[in-house]
Prior knowledge:
- By secondary structure, the protein is mostly helical.
- Helix content is about 75%, strand content about 0%.
- The termini are far apart.
Amino acid sequence: MARSTQVRERRDPAPPAAGPEAASSSVPLARPQLPTQAPLLTGVLAVAVGALPMVVLGWGLVAGVLVAVIVQLVALPVWSGAVEGPRRAKDRLATSLMWTAFGVAMVPLVSLLWQVIGNGVPALSTEFFTYSMRNVVGEGGGIYHALVGTLIVTGWAAAISVPVGVMAAIYLVEYGRGTRMARVITFLVDVMTGIPSIVAGLFAYALFVLFFGPGVRMGFGGSVALAVLMIPIVVRSTEEMLKLVPDELREASYALGVAKWRTVTKVVLPTAMGGIVTGVMLAVARVAGETAPLLIIAGDTDSVNFNAFSERMATLPVYIYYSYMQPGIPPEFGRERAWGAALVLIALVMGLNLIARAVGKYFAPKTGR
């Protein structure tokens, strides 16, 4: 009888320590949160504090902005730490630091665009795009000869560098992977990537002096110099795009008995075409604004020259350099043309980048069903 009593006592459940209401009242399930407008509110406070020494003490704009940034970086994490806890405060501090870094990076870009647009827009006109500088002194003239020269020189540079760069990348990825020759080519491409542009111009000048003698100046020489700068960019971008092509596509083609060269031309290249074209366009945009090599080998002229293999050829970077350094009398007209040409060159490079983006998006593999 006593034993059955003990068994019954063991089977009786223990009374609950506390119910759900007690647990929820003792441990909160969610911490308090700052309002959604908290960064905006602290930003307004930071701007007010930064503007105060500018008004009272006569500080400059840079000092006021610096004070506002410091206040923002301190106020928001402190407020968050008091309300949301230290973990959320660290997250807000890191976010504020990233936005601050982004703003610092945008300052020179915005300042450059503001200055170029402000000084270059007054020079833009129909005459500016359709007239050269032949027999022009002072007011008037345009960039037609330099614009034509830039297009011709850059076009020849692309015609030289794109086949060489693409073929070299195909060899590195498809044929020479792991070989000693591929390692040597990769090393040389890495070295060429860091070559200063003026060295490329000196190389092209020395090369053409061997054939045409000292003092040679021609547009095709500038194309050769730009091609030296473009080739490593094309090789690297094409190589990375070819590496992204899945090996399963190659193996499926080989399993069907397709030759390697046809696999490369019919399977691998079409798959990577979007990235290859994007890399080529970015390489063209990279060299379109080079000045030093064109200054050495292409020279400058006031007339239009459509023949890249004869005489000097004007380009936009060289035109900008001479228009600003030797503006003529009176100097304001030459410098105004220099700012206008700089704006056109920036717009040209930006257009090439946008075209590269559009081409890459067009050729990108379609993932939707």
